[in-house]
Amino acid sequence: MDMSLYPHAVAMSADEFMTWSDAIINDLLSTGTKKTVDKLTGPIWAWGMKNSMHPLHWGLACCALEMAAASAPRYDAERYGMIYRSSPRQTDILLVNGWISKKIRPDLRRLYEMIPNPKWVVAMGECAISGGPWYDSYNCIQGLDQIVPVDVYIPGCPARPDAMIDGFMLLQKKIEDYFRRGNFMED
Amino acid sequence: MAEVYQSPSVDEIKQALTSNFPDVEIISTEERRVKAKCPREISHDVCQFIHDNLTFEHCSVVTAVDYVDHLMVVYLLANYYNGVMIDLNVDVPDDDLHIACVTDIWQGANWHERETWELFGIVFDNHPRLERLLTPQNYEFFPFRKSYKMRSQE
């Protein structure tokens, strides 16, 4: 339930507000408790999650330099709430920026499994998308989507910080949609 | 064995190598470069001589070349004092890929030899730790061989 859709609610008296909100909640509860909780808390979750995107601080290759540049004063990704955390338990986004060698493949999958649900995966740069310059190499994975499901692809070799921030803006929409869809209680 | 040169000239290197090792063949020389070929049996002795008597204290590269019918190990050895480099080539037959390890002479050759082993499959005898370095332990092929084909080349 998005309160911005009901601007007149602010102008109501206390009694009017109680009757109005009781009617709305009773209406919702008739569809089931889970859905009611989803509908009421979804926007709050979406607002919280999309403004505090915590990617895993895991620089693999040269795109990690662009990741660092995006955090630097010129682009300052932190104003969108992107704070890099070093432990997968404290993150909700797996940002893979660079080639994935066959030796690191099991560790990457493990990091993905360690991130608590709900989680998103961002493939940044050509190497993570398709292997890039290492396409058909003997020691590189041909695309991140072969091992983990990917939500957003950020092309570029390496991707510029603005491209990366744009990708994360798209991911914000995706996060918002995820919670608006109301499958939080289903999990 | 012979006298010790600290900064040998190209001619002195040529002279010292051929007089001490008749089997060593000097292929070509350029300014500050000597290209030599030596049989596999004496490769360790030649390297020891180059290190001790010609004062080549740095082993830049150990790598290999695949000539399909045989492989060739390439050592690039450098002298700090006058900048001369020796390009030492050692042929290894295809059916017996063994060569003496030079890690006891130059410690820096350790990882170069491991990498040459994992990419070409050349076994360096008496190497302290001949394991795969960058590829997973379960690889059973040697990717830099000519016989290894990429998916697009098949």
Write a structural description.
The complex is a heterodimer of chains A (187) and B (154). Chain A is mainly α and 187 residues long. Chain A folds into 2 domains: 3-50, no CATH class; 63-177, Rossmann fold, CATH 3.40.50. Chain A has 6 helices and 3 strands, in the order αααβαβαβα. In chain A, helix 5 links the parallel strand 2 and strand 3. The mean pLDDT of chain A is 86. Chain B is α/β, with parallel strands linked by helices. Helix content of chain B is 21%, strand content 29%. Chain B has helices spanning 10-20, 43-52, 109-120; strands at residues 25-30, 33-38, 58-66, 70-78, 85-93, 98-100, 123-125. Chain B starts with 9 loop residues before the first helix and ends in a 29-residue tail after the last strand. The chains are: A mainly alpha (187), B alpha/beta (154). At the A-B interface, loops of A face loops of B.
Short description:
Chain A is mainly alpha-helical and 187 residues long. Chain A has helices spanning 14-29, 33-50, 63-71, 105-114, 125-130, 161-180; strands at residues 93-97, 120-124, 152-154. In chain A, 42% of the residues lie in helices and 7% in strands.
Question: What labels describe this entry?
Answer:
heterodimer, A: 187 residues, mainly alpha, Rossmann fold, 2 domains, 6 helices, elongated, B: 154 residues, alpha/beta, Beta Polymerase, domain 2, 5-stranded mixed beta sheet, two-stranded parallel sheet, 3 helices, 7 strands, 21% helix
